[in-house]
Amino acid sequence: MNKKLNTILFILGATLFNVLVAILSFILLLILYLRYVIVLMPEQGHMWGFTFIFIASLVCSFFVYRYALKYLLKKIDVDKYFDPLFVRRNIRKN
Predict the structure, then answer these.
(1) HSE on the CB side for 70, CA within 13 Å?
(2) What's the CA dihedral at 49, 54, 56, 57 to 10 degrees?
(3) What is the model's pLDDT at position 17?
(4) pLDDT tens across 7-56, in order?
(5) Burial (CB count within 10 angstroms: exposed 0-12, middle 13-18, buried 19+), residue 61
(6) Cα angle vertex 39, ends 49, 26, to 5°?
């Protein structure tokens, strides 16, 4: 496999990982909310809870993705296996 294909597969895999972490964290937070918090809240506050769970799951997936990426980049030599996405072109100034 060449570097460009490795880069594309890495981006697709990382995106899939991020989406799965977001879904799993949403489900986990929803279960915890429905089990422990919803009985303590008034009826008017239930929708705010679901909004908070959605935002919290996105934030949680961001942090998990960030730490997983840092760990992976420590283990893998990026220059050896991946091609840069954006190539800087030399612009001549006259």
Answers:
(1) 6
(2) 140
(3) 95
(4) 888 889 999 999 999 999 999 999 998 888 887 777 777 788 889 999 99
(5) buried
(6) 35
Q: Tell me the residue length of the chain.
A: 94
Cβ proximity of 54 and 26 under 8 Å: yes
CA distance 28 to 41: 19
What is the pTM for the complete model shown?
Answer: 0.79
Tell whether the model's pLDDT for residue 86 goes beyond 60.
Answer: yes
Beta carbons within 8 Å of 58's beta carbon, 6+ residues apart = 22
What are the CA-CA distances from residue 16 to residues 47, 60, 62, 69 (Å)?
28, 15, 13, 13
Three-state SS at 94: coil
